[in-house]
Amino acid sequence: MPSATTTTRRAGQAPVRQARTPAPGLFLTLIAVCSAVTAANIYLAAPLLSLMADDFGSAPSAVAWIASVAQLGYAVGLLFFAPLGDSANRRRLVAGLTLVTTVALGASAAAPGATALAVAMFVASATTVIPQLLVPLVAERAPADRRARHVAAVIAGLFTGIVGARVLGGLAGQAFGWRWVFAGAALLTLVLGLATSLVLPSRRREGPLFAGLAALPSVLRHSPDLWRACLRQAGMFGAWSALWTALSLLLTGPAYGLSTATAGLFGLFGLTASAVAPLAGGFVDRFGAARVVRSAYLLAAVSVPLFWLGGHAPAALFAAAIAIHAALVASHVANQTLALTATSTPATANTAYVVAGFAGGAAASALGGAAFSHFGWSGVCAVAGLWLVLGWGLTSVRR
């Protein structure tokens, strides 16, 4: 019976054991599903804010900051863990991060108050960076003329997880309570994370363990394409985060008066992202990243006034949700493909790219929550528009 691993030997080196990877299609599917489950962890809090507020005896707007803490934790985790993809043993790294994430999600489920929940969510989000360890591997294994399509497959899985967090999280939270949502997420993360780690290459690469982290400033400084991709995705993701984080507050507030479960169903419009990702990958391979990003920004710019109208008009809100998800995923596929091919250290470049995006998302999410408390839904839309202007305006001048 063949073993699950193979052994290779290089001259002057000890044998290196590597996982026997499954067929390319199955391998890509497993990575996409794992990315969906782990990415969902970052957004579990968003559809459950009203339930958490009731449990903790506070107003929903008073716990909105927990969602931004999760995004900030993810950005911090990316900064420290994602660069290890260029030097560390991926199999062991993914397995270790999976175990820590599982424990942190369990602690979230048992949190006695908002502060304890925020701390546990920060840790869980910081260690659930597995998708961004896998994307560079997918890009490396893909044929050059289909690289964007393969990256898009993983991104489609990632956004499916985000939609699942909102839709299934809202339904399960309404039926069983928000604590059981975190407990279920812990179990799924454990199973999928460990299963994925078993099929990853086990060989450690050359170089110091934290060389990628130390090289980040230099990599950004010497790659204008990477710098531009980082800022543009920070602007796009920030606009989406501000709108999507505050959306549950709008839907469960006086304007719509929906239950948490019904508001969570609104996330089904996010399935647009999963459908658009493969198309965007094909467009990037055919027309180039710059043209796709430009089109995505135009679509996002149209969505902001639609969101503003959607404060009282459901049809406008539906159209805006579809448009912003399509814009976000198209921009993400194009910018991430560009980031992965801009330098000779894809994991380090991907770290800079995703950290920039989530830092922009966390900042906009926090500002959007504050804007909703002081200025209502119009304030949230203004924050989203500002982030789009900054993301495009700061990169429109050639360096």
Keywords:
single chain, 399 residues, mainly alpha, two-stranded antiparallel ribbon, globular
What does this structure look like?
The structure is a single chain. The protein is mostly helical and 399 residues long. The protein is 74% helix and 2% strand. It is built from 16 helices and two strands. It has helices at 24-40, 49-56, 65-81, 90-109, 114-127, 130-141, 147-176, 178-197, 211-221, 224-251, 260-265, 271-287, 289-309, 314-341, 346-375, 377-393; strands spanning 5-8, 16-19. It has a two-stranded antiparallel ribbon with strand order 1-2. Strand 1 and strand 2 (16-19) form a beta hairpin. Helix 10 packs antiparallel against helix 14 and helix 15 runs antiparallel to helix 16 (377-393). It is globular and about 50 Å long. The termini are far apart. Residues 1-19 have low confidence and may be disordered.
